[in-house]
């Protein structure tokens, strides 16, 4: 296949990825918000397309699809493009929109651009300094080498990946397994709803008394204008007592409203738990319950192996596929074509990793956006999510390299440069262990407190 045909194929695939990012942006992230700036949509879609292109090239590398020179050219082109977006384009626009949301900043275009340029230079300084504490580069690399950018992006991205992986490995079994679901009956729900209705009645009663007291105070104020002397003094005392009663009623009302809020949230939680119990009895629920046990075993194994790797400063030299084939040949006596099956199984494994990584990150980004987005901050948040997404995918390439057979690692090593790859795997193990153990502690406390709330009634 000629270089021109290879380039046309890559361009067509990038257009598809760009369209996918565009649709995801409009149908998921911004379906409840108005898109104020088309540049936000454009930059997000470009970042998504460039990120997916790197994963596509990994698959092509395993399959031997496209010519080797074409793959190398598009590796370099895509890598330089996404680094430019992550280091130059996204930080600049994030600063531009943040400054635009500040009321005390004059909203003249040249002032915003100048302040944004200063903010971007500050970002470059901190971005550069973040790599100083970490042994990520060889001393021979120059200041403006591509390894400098990838090394620092890798530190941030690998940290993010490890945090999400640690939490996900613990949270998925917790949310999908039957044994962690609280027992909820109709009596529990009816009791909470009854207390909620009683609280709402008390709030209405208090507000009614407040309205009557305010009306009485206005009536007394009108009388004060037409009367003086002794009757005026008596009216003032009466008005003062009414004002004091209103203050007490206001405090009582606020306390009841806070209680009603907590009761309402507890009622929603009980209804959700009841729905989970009903869902767990379906075939799909039982399937995810089984997956929960599988991921529980994986989580325990991953925590154990991460601890061993940290204690003994160990990094795997052989990819899991090749290692499994070696065990099958040496210990089980199974004979088959090692090179052929290594390629096929590696393709399947990397494909699963890529699909689950993209799906998991997009789900996380969507939930995070809905949790904190508003009409004013939505543009900044989307650009920040695009920054996180790009760093996440670049770091995924660094870590996926270890899951590939030796002959497929060479092109990634050649493209990414002479990085300290072992450091990133050790750093991932450290952050994953901290994240997983912290998530276990947090979920344990939350699980223990939930029944106490119901029993004690707040």
Give me some keywords for this one.
mainly alpha, about 85% helix, about 0% strand, 13 helices, about 450 residues, single chain
How far the N terminus sits from the C terminus, by CA atoms, comes to: 70 Å
Let me know the number of strands: 0
Main sheet?
none
Work out the helicity level. Answer: over 70%
* Low-pLDDT segments, ≥5 res: none
How would you sum up the global shape? globular
Q: What is the N-to-C succession of helices and strands?
A: HHHHHHHHHHHHH
Average pLDDT confidence is 75
* Category by helix and strand content: mainly alpha
- What is the count of helical runs? 13
Percentage of residues in DSSP E strands: under 5%
Alpha-carbon Rg, integer:
30 Å
How are the SSEs ordered, and which strands pair?
Blueprint: H1 3-29, H2 38-63, H3 68-101, H4 109-129, H5 146-176, H6 186-226, H7 229-280, H8 283-311, H9 320-331, H10 338-372, H11 378-400, H12 406-416, H13 421-456
Helix pairs in contact: 1-2, 1-3, 2-3, 2-10, 2-11, 3-4, 3-11, 5-8, 5-11, 5-13, 6-7, 8-13, 10-11
Q: What do you see in this structure?
A:
With 458 residues, the chain is mainly α. The protein contains 13 helices and no strands. It has helices at 3-29, 38-63, 68-101, 109-129, 146-176, 186-226, 229-280, 283-311, 320-331, 338-372, 378-400, 406-416, 421-456. The longest helix has 52 residues, at 229-280. The mean pLDDT is 75.
